[in-house]
Specification:
Blueprint (H helix, E strand, L loop, with lengths): L19 H12 L1 H16 L3 H23 L8 H8 L2 H36 L10 H17 L3 H32 L23 H13 L15 H31 L3 H9 L3 H9 L2 H38 L14 H22 L3 H33 L11 H18 L9 H19 L22
Length: 487
């Protein structure tokens, strides 16, 4: 053990009190499948038109390949730093610190995405039910700001209560969305859909004249919809049986998310129509499932789904703060010991780190609004793209580290043929990143890769300038015993 590493038990630490379902709750809450299905597909449709479900299929494949990496790593390590620990243990302490900093950036940007979505859906709900008939343009930011205060309050209480609430709310909302999706599909099959629309396999193919490679451009919002499936890894020091429960939570969330998102997006596109007019209505919808529910089931359905999506978005913002604060806590604990941001309260939560993470979310919103005069939807789209680009780079580095550890470090504990899985993950992730920067985007979108790159570079510069920031050491209480090697 490094002399600079804190001794286990020298100060209050995170408490092992979470079950597998609470770990699942963390991952699902950060994915926010109900919010994702209600707004993220519109970002994809702008690039691929009717082929939104195809883009989500590609994202699903990529995520399942990455899930393999996280499952294997979580079987070896259980650490609050998630990819920070994984990359540090497999590539090196400096690379791990940069990876941890980068993922924390994703959580901060996603906290902005989801709190803003909560403001957008919340404003829509209040307007529809007549509570706020003519809300001003700043209304979503007001609701978003209030939600971030609540996020901070719930982040500093033990994660057990928070994850239970997140899983319950998200589960109810997802169930409602699935019921509405099935109702829409039944009417499409029965031939009683508005406008005589019928089910079609066209949603899994690009329209004539559209470059097939643009599907990877649209897949960014597919990855955005999955982002957070690995969030349970940040609870590695709080789960009762981390090497069993955390891998199960990550893999189960990825499989469920893929099936759910592909099905729901296919129904959404078919419900609006696959012709240009239908795609245009799809991209301009204020609430995809809310509008479909109102058209295919009843007017009240749209209100219920808008409220559910707002609650889901809030839950996701809370999960972002929980994950981001755990990462910052882990980074600070290794760099400076059990004090400052590396300290936990008597409740067993990193409260100081949570304050910094939530303030960073406020800062990002302020930069967009005061610096660029962005609307709530502009903030949502920009933060989502930036956060996802950072996340894809983190996944790439984590996958490289996993390949090195699993297949080129003795003793090798997994069959050599499995190397195909992480190599395929590198191909899918790498091409998605490449397609989003080549050709380089124009207009406002040109700043998205730049901001993502600057965030990562800041981490690299900080580590190079202050080497003590990279004092990662594998502690005995977060490392698995040696596994049995295989031939």
């Amino acid at each position: 053990m490094s002399p600079s590493a804190p001794e286990p038990g020298s100060a209050p630490g995170l408490r092992r009190s979470l079950s597998v379902w609470q770990a699942v709750g963390m991952s699902i809450a950060l994915m926010a499948p109900s919010m994702a299905a209600n707004i993220n597909p519109q970002g994809t449709a702008g690039s691929v038109g009717r082929a939104v479900p195809l883009a989500f299929v590609i994202a699903t494949v990529g995520v399942l390949l990455v899930a393999y990496v996280f499952v294997r790593l979580c079987q070896r390590f259980n650490h609050a730093g998630s990819v920070y620990a994984f990359v540090a243990a497999t590539v090196g302490a400096r690379a791990g610190t940069v990876a941890g900093w980068s993922l924390m950036g994703t959580y901060c940007f996603y906290g902005v995405v989801t709190s803003t979505a909560a403001g957008i859906f919340g404003t829509s709900f209040l307007q529809t039910v007549g509570v706020w008939p003519n809300p001003p343009g700043w209304a979503p930011f007001l609701i978003s700001g209030v939600s971030l205060v609540l996020v901070w309050l719930l982040t500093v209480i033990p994660a057990r209560g928070g994850t239970r609430v997140l899983l319950t709310v998200e589960g109810l909302t997802v169930a409602l969305i699935l019921l509405v999706s099935v109702a829409v599909l039944v009417r499409l099959v029965a031939g009683t859909a508005p406008g005589g629309l019928r089910p079609t396999w066209d949603v899994f193919s690009v329209a004539p004249g559209t470059d097939a490679s643009t599907v990877f451009l649209g897949a960014v919002f597919g990855f955005l919809s999955f982002a957070g499936f690995e969030a349970a890894a940040t609870l590695g020091e709080e789960a009762r049986r981390p090497r069993r429960d955390i891998p199960r939570a990550i893999l189960g969330t990825a499989i469920f998310g893929g099936a759910y998102l592909v099905f729901v997006t296919a129904v959404e596109v078919m419900g609006f129509g696959t012709d240009p007019a239908g795609v245009d209505a799809f991209t301009k919808s204020g609430s995809l499932l809310g509008d479909l529910g109102s058209r295919y089931v009843g007017a009240w359905v749209g209100d219920v789904i808008s409220l559910g999506a707002a609650i889901s978005a809030f839950g996701c913002a809370l999960a972002c703060a929980v994950g981001g604060s755990r990462l910052l806590y882990a980074l600070s604990r290794d760099a400076a010991g059990d004090r400052g941001l590396g300290k936990v309260t008597k409740l067993g939560t990193p409260a100081a780190a949570a304050v910094v993470v939530v303030l960073a979310m406020y800062g990002i919103v302020a930069a967009f609004v005061l610096g660029a005069g962005s609307s709530a939807m502009d903030v949502f789209l920009a933060s989502g793209t930036i956060g996802t680009l950072i996340l894809l780079v983190v996944y790439l580095v984590t996958t490289v580290g996993a390949i090195r550890l699993l297949f080129f470090t003795a003793p090798r504990t997994v069959p050599m043929w499995e190397i195909v899985i992480p190599l395929l993950a590198l191909v899918v992730l790498g091409y998605t990143v490449y397609r989003n920067v080549v050709p380089y985007p124009t207009g406002t979108a040109a700043t998205f890769p730049l901001v993502a790159g600057v965030w990562i570079v800041l981490g690299i510069v900080a580590v190079a300038a202050v080497p003590r920031l990279s004092r990662f050491a594998l502690r005995e209480d977060v490392t698995s015993p040696s596994a049995t090697p295989v031939p």
